[in-house]
Structure formats: structure tokens, C-alpha cells
């Protein structure tokens, strides 16, 4: 089970996703409403590495920065994979915290593969509100 405390109207962030921690105690002070995600339909981030590398190779061929990826464009495909493998999703979700990179992942990797939840080493990132249950 994964846990999120957030606003009472929706668990989703302005970025269109909801980040969950595997440890409830780490997040129980973040908001008035409690949400759970049970891992259903989640894909381990490590299982996405080949898709991320392939999409990043296509991205690297583009000479422009209209999407605001800026600094991230200087990184290798392996570094980008690392950006989506945070060691502590509560204190630093890395690529999931960057609106532009998160949007890139959604548009270029997740949505085309019908992936609506990513499992990280200590949490989950969910892009489909229907997978989330409000419990309190």
C-alpha cells in the first residue's frame, strides 16, 4: 500500500500526478485528506528504462528547447533514468518534481504505453485518479 495526504478535493497535483510514499508515517502531516494507492497496474520504474532511453535518444536529436527541459538536455539517457528513480520520494522526487521533465515522461513514455502508475524504490507516482482511493 502507498500513502498520500493532500487537499480534500483531489489527490492530484498541478502537474497531473499524485506522489505516494510506502511509509505512511513519512507523509501523514502533509494534508487533511488521506489517499491510498494499492499498486494496481503500477510498472516498476526500472522496467521503463529501455523506453526512457529510446525516447531520450529521440529527444536528444532535437536542436531546440521549446519545452523548457534546459539543463536536463545536457544529461545522458542513463542520467534521465536516474532522475526517475529517486532514493527518497518524500524528500526529493527529482524528475517527478520537475514539471517539464515530468510532462516529457508522461507524453513520450507513459501515455503512449497506457501506463498510469510508476512504482519507485520507496513509493509510487500515479497519473490516473481512478486508481486512487480516498480513505479519510
Structural class: alpha+beta
| Computed Rg | 15 Å
What's the structural domain tally? 1
- N-end to C-end Cα span: 15 Å
SSE arrangement, N to C: EEEEHHHEEE
**Helix content percent band:** 10-25%
**3D shape:** elongated
According to DSSP, the number of beta strands is 7
Our estimate of the beta-strand percent is 15-25%
Assembly status: single chain
Strand order of the largest sheet: 2-6-5-4
Description of the molecule:
By secondary structure, the protein is an alpha+beta fold. It has one domain (2-134). It has 3 helices and 7 strands. The protein has helices at residues 49-60, 77-83, 99-110, and strands spanning 2-6, 18-21, 33-37, 43-44, 117-120, 123-126, 133-134. The strands form 2 sheets. The chain has a 4-stranded mixed beta sheet, with no helix packed on it. The protein has a 3-stranded antiparallel beta sheet with strand order 1-3-7, with no helix packed on it. A hairpin with a 2-residue loop joins strand 5 and strand 6 (123-126). Helix 1 (49-60) packs across helix 2. The chain is elongated and about 45 Å long. The two termini are 15 Å apart. The mean pLDDT is 93.
